[in-house]
Design goal:
It is built from three helices and seven strands. It is of the alpha+beta class.
Amino acid sequence: MKEAPVDYNALIQTAVQDSNIPKIYVNGFIVSTALSDFTVVMQLNGQTIQVMNVSYTSLKSLQEAIKTSIDNFEKKTGVSLLTISQIKNALIDTQIEHKPIEILKPDVKRAIEVEQVEVIKPKKKN
């Protein structure tokens, strides 16, 4: 007997709409390998917010699914996504200048100091 095809779009829609299923956003991660599985520490702005343990097979399958999705996205949009390492290397010449700026607060009649101003200087092309 043949199994009915899985409607992945319906599964995704249900998961996204279900308020009982936690949703997280991450912009960083650390991956560790153990004898029986991988540990993925998910971070938001450098702070750990979630830890996920995944079997080798499941993580390999996830990696293939994500790669396929990214490849399809890049092909359809004509945009190549950069990794964090690629962005960091491209901005290696970025300089952050720490200059206090005085701002007059009208209600207090005194200057307050802004600790940092970021000045991004584009990387020089040779």
